[in-house]
Amino acid sequence: MQQQIVASGHGLVESARIRDGEFWFADWFARSIVRLDADGAEHVVGELASMPVCFDWLPDGTLVTTGGGLALTSVSDAGALTRVADLSGLSDKAYNDIAVDPRGNVFVNNVGFDFPGGEFAPGFVGVVGPDGSVRRVAEDLAFPNGMAVTADGSTLIVAESYAARLSAFTIADDGSLTDRRVWANLGEGVAPDGISIDPSGAVWYASVPQQHCALVAEGGDVLAEVPLDRGCFDCAIDGSTLYVATAQWRGEMAGSGQVVRVDVA
């Protein structure tokens, strides 16, 4: 599998996304959202108030992020920030990943404790409805991390980093989550971080300690692996091209963040 570094010199690179054929990512150290255009030039789209910086788009194209403190925040084309919903009533811990379904339900997750130094506690998934309502919809997740909604909008898949698995939920029209099930057990020692749903319906996951991305089918069969030379924090698939957000986890992380493009055809 041919690999090419397409962005480098960043800090903790996360929140890999594809939008209109372009790759977007977040540099958590810089607290910025970055768009990588077709010529490889980087454009800072927004600068946020806090980490983590994860983002997605509403059905109308509005960019929203969890990087505005304990709130869901929109980012205008000019970079202006507007609070969409207050999330402080659900938790006083920082929010992590975000995923939006076709109905406009915005799912946000929270690890439930002060990582990395705090004592472990189970995390949860919350939802912000199109009407602005906010509530918890899934509990007792072992460090909920990357999330993705299936193409038909019926299922939310959540990576549980401390349980070495991908869990799935059926999404109701109002954003409620039911029918929790194990989508794939990934094996001892695996810590899935960001995820991306392949056109085949299988799921790519990034793993920091394993320094790889892997494609797994429902049930856990490994279909492909992409090894890299540093921790893999997130990934995004665009047809047969996989973009991987990587950085050193042990040692000096500043300046080690890269985006690697991989041909996985």
Automatic annotation (TrEMBL):
UniProt GO MF annotations: hydrolase activity; metal ion binding
Keywords tagged on the record: Hydrolase, Metal-binding, Zinc
Domain SMP-30/Gluconolactonase/LRE-like region: 19-247
Gene3D superfamilies, per database record: TolB, C-terminal domain
Binding positions for substrate per the UniProt entry: 96, 114
Superkingdom as given in the UniProt entry: Bacteria
Enzyme active site: 193 (proton donor/acceptor)
InterPro entries named in the record: 6-blade_b-propeller_TolB-like, SGL, SMP-30, SMP-30/CGR1_Lactonase
Binding site for a divalent metal cation: 145, 193
Cofactor(s), by name: Zn(2+)
Cofactor binding remark: Binds 1 divalent metal cation per subunit.
Family as reported in the entry's similarity comment: Belongs to the SMP-30/CGR1 family.
The protein, known as: SMP-30/gluconolactonase/LRE family protein
